[in-house]
Amino acid sequence: MEYGMKSAFVAVLLSGLFVLPAQAQNRPHNVIIFVADGLRYGSVESGNMPNMARLKSQGVDFTNSHALFPTVTTVNASAIATGHGIGDTGDFGNTIYTGQPMESLKGSMLGFLENDRLLAGMNQKFGGNYLGETTLIAAARAHGWQTAIIGKEGPARIQDSTATSDETLIVDDSTGSAAGVALPQWFETGLKNAGLAPPPPSPSVPDTAQEEWMAKSATEIVLPHFKDAAKPFIHLFWSRDPDFSQHNGRDSIGSPTPGINGPTGLAGTHVADTVLGALLDRLKALGLDQSTDVFVTADHGFVTMTHQDGGRELPNGFLVHDLAAALALPKVDLPDHPQLVVAPNGNSDLIYLPGPGAAALAARVASFLMA
User: Fold this and answer.
1) How far is CA 257 from CA 45, 94, 253, in A?
2) Is the per-residue pLDDT at 362 higher than 50?
């Protein structure tokens, strides 16, 4: 099937790549942004991912792109959302040190940002907008566009981190619970009519059930509603797969092969491609394919790693143990005034030095790590 829409396939969205369509003689084109979490550029081939492969070959193929921070979702989500680097947004990792006890963390100061409640708490902590920048979706709605975000909790909310329920539709894992963003009436009615009672299914390997629920929300409720309203729209869909299946697959336990190219990883990439195909088909059925620009991107690729050292399995938080021993510091849960804090981010840990004497301590940390 051919698609008349303008389309773009890119490996990772970089700063400044997306801009709102300029006003033309007629109504501006609508925009759909599809993010396949954890998708590697080389995974896209016609046999397993025909929809993305078609866009890649028939549209614009951005071949020399790079993740802002390898394999860490929210960091790259903040860049996709705002076009700014992390020096501007402060989103340095999935798990960060907040500097003060957070109610959403039950008093803890280490928080995992893929959580709507924590993101709301971060907004309160940082003047109403923890990113400190305007997101693309927020800019679109400020210009009167219809806006909707559907997908993985955390990166979905980051795309319009300050929006209220009557400004942007946000549907994620927490939808239907007290932790989720409230839903507008038109969408709640649409869920009932479509037989999609919230909450969405929990993630699975591959994430077929949850992705199908999310895709139906987009194709059976959101896109028809946007068409009926007859105003330009921007819709971002954040697919949890292939990332979830790649993280949780067990094809290579005890062996480096087949790795993420095994059956589970391939199933996850196929799930993401199937959802994209459903969106494309619905655009065509609604007569929106000629007036909608479609962008496909990923937050990061995917790597595999081992936590073994000479055959010994390293414990979770091994960097904390090593630094505490090397620097003769007490290893305790976060006190009120810590000297050093490690925020684990999947072998890309963040080290904070919030106390006095940070410069001297930083030199000792660097010397230990370099050794």
Assistant:
1) 20, 28, 9
2) yes
Q: Extract the tokens encoding 369.
A: 């790590």
CATH of the domain at 54: 3.40.720.10
**38-68 confidence digits (pLDDT tens):** 999 999 999 999 999 999 999 999 888 888 8
Domain assignment present for residue 317? The answer is yes
* Beta pairing class for 308-309 and 312-313: antiparallel
Coil, strand or helix: which one is 333?
Answer: coil
State whether the Cα torsion 60-64-68-73 is positive or negative. Answer: positive
**197 CB burial (10 A radius; 0-12, 13-18, 19+):** exposed
Does residue 281 sit in the same domain as residue 356?
no
Question: Would residue 339 count as lying in a domain?
Answer: yes
CA distance 31 to 23: 14
d(CA 152, CA 207): 11
Other Cβ atoms within 10 Å of 286 Cβ, number: 15
Consecutive H or E run containing 270: helix 263-285
Within-domain flag for 64: yes
- Residue that the structure tokens 């299946």 belong to: 245
Domain shared by 163 and 271, yes or no: yes
Does any domain span residue 2?
A: no
Taking the CA atoms of the chain, what radius of gyration do you get in angstroms? Answer: 21
Query: Which range of residues forms the domain containing residue 334?
Result: 313-370
- Is residue 170 within a helix (H) or strand (E), and if so which, with residue range? strand 169-171
